[in-house]
Amino acid sequence: MSQLTYGNINDKVVKSMEPPGRSWMVSMLMILGALSMGMFAWAVQIEHGLEWSGINHPIAWGVYITNFVFWIGIGHAGTLISAVLYLVRAPFRNSIYRASEAMTVFAVMTAGLFPLIHLGRAWYAYWLLPYPNQRELWINFKSPLLWDVFAISTYMSVSIAFFILGLIPDLATVRDESKGLKRLFYSIPALCFRGTNHQWLHYMRGYLIFAAIATPLVFSVHSIVSWDFAMSSLPGWHSTIFAPYFVAGAIFSGCGMVLTIMIPLRVAFPGFKEIIKLKDLEGMAKLIIFTSLIVTYAYAVEFFIAYYSGAQFERALFWFRPFGEMQGFFWVMVTCNCIVPIFLFSKKVRTSIPALFVISLLVNVGMWLERFVIVGTSLAHEFVPFAWGTYQFEWVEIWITIGSFGFFFMWFFIFVKIMPSIAIAEMKETLTPPFRRKNDE
Amino acid sequence: MMSKFSGVWATFEYLDDTCAAIKELKSENFDQITTHTPCPRHEIDHALGSPQSRVPFVTVIGSFIGFALALLITTKMALDWILPVSAKPILSVPIVVPIAFELTVLLSIYFTMGGMLLLILKDTFKHQVPKSSQYKEYDRFMRDRFGIVVECQEGDFQKIENIFKKHQAEEVNLEK
Q: Could you give the ipTM of this predicted complex?
């Protein structure tokens, strides 16, 4: 195995950006197929209305809000890895943070589609924004849904800015490694970066500030998303632990998705095996264990409070979740989120790539179901029994959900071919620099 | 406007040679130094005397503006159209805090980015680099080579060249 050097990191990353091969093309075709079906389903919904989705009384927030929360959650790991793990100097961060950041940007872009899809009349989405209209009617600042508009927009702006900022030195590297038109293409976003001390000085200070500012944002965004639920007085939603519970869940699902995308990336580009080391993936697996334990604790606490507080509506709801007609979702969720990650305590499992990949997929499934259980069961089983109901999945929302995965992976597949999917400069920082006198430093 | 560059630049294979050359240049009172590295290295910062960036000041300005903007829009809009909901106060701290937090962060980030770009631009004008195609087309600074550019008068060329050669520079170029 060759040793990593400043030069061969460039070579490996630039090689991953060569024109796509057959497997990339076939995968892209499948992705575009899924996206097309999703777009078709959305068009059908716009034509016929929301009745073509499963949204109905009493579950007026169904798959779309589940998808929205799921994708926002996925987006959390990127900023966690790029900002929080940067501040604490986690050693497994450097090889995976660029792809995770890209994942964040694309996941938040995907999440942003769902409020529009859920609105039905997507063209009135601008009513959410504080624009001065004819009657001088302003938006309701007391609503957490409005806070969410600000939170998600800020999170998306910051994620994109963070992503672009991190890319600048690496785009300069790719520019210098390219010839002809490709060189011209990369020289524009590289902004004349040539690694001078003045550039690195302001760049590194700015990057540190970005990380420091983005860290509270990681916690604020999903807290505010959780308040979309927790500010209501609905049993199963009105809970004070929702904010930390949602944040932990978001990091948990995001780490799962990081493994879901990093493992195939490592296989697709053999040169990356030396860069994305097994111990980096193991680091993510440890984060999954940690956040899974928090999520499990939150599930247990919810049940305990519902039982011991004596609040009858809470009790009824928390009996309905594991034993009612929607119990299947609950038990799969518990299996995927609480039981499956326990296997990661074994080093043998943690260091097995196939096992990590399967577990990461199950975590994704479990976390999607968690959001569906929160949204669906609480609305299905409100205060008065005559208003109870259940949820019927319709093909339109199923295809829109599959299409959202197509939308996400389309961007990711484009990204790995036109941008450096490994942070070149940061990887070089982790290496011992070339010294003539080996006893120095 | 950028004036014509006069100075010497050299490339190095090893970081310790680069740092030693910088330290010697500083001891000889050559302060117009620009270095090139493939990634940020603290060794270079220490050799240059640990310069500080002013980006945090720009960030603070952005955060104050963001906070003030959030106060303004929430207060103005909440009082402009009275919207009673669930007997909650028309204007209160919980209404303002989430918006203020988000806008503070947003503006801080924008200002940080703008500040970084402006400061880099300012330093680029302040510290001249060679205009020759040989320098512009040298493409190993972002790969695996270190570089030092010293802006100086023609009379100092020989002295700087000797320092670079003493520290085993790969190549030394004089630019008049």
A: 0.94
